[in-house]
Amino acid sequence: MINWTQLLSKTTNVKAVTKFAEGKTSGTEFYSSFAGTKAGGTARYLLRQHGVTYARRLARKALRRRGVTVNN
Fold first, then answer.
1. Spatial contact of 26 and 35, defined as CB atoms under 8 Å apart
2. C-alpha dihedral over 62, 11, 70, 55, to 10 degrees?
3. Domain map of the chain by residue range?
4. Looking at residue 49, what is its pLDDT?
5. pTM score, two decimals?
6. CA-CA-CA-CA torsion sign (14, 47, 42, 2)
7. By the 8 A CB rule, do 30 and 22 touch?
8. Cα 45 to Cα 39: distance, rounded to the nearest angstrom
């Protein structure tokens, strides 16, 4: 299970997830933005288990549920 609370805990993390969900960054860039942090493992797990396409969909869903506007 993906810990979205950990991934979206900081404003900079929300911006990184939003860019990824909108398709402005690749999967590698998304993972690199979390490398070396506590959320790094969660980001890596998301990409490895679901792939980039479905991970983007899940990220959009998680952001919308938290009231963050996402442009597709």
1. no
2. -50
3. 4-65
4. 96
5. 0.92
6. positive
7. no
8. 10
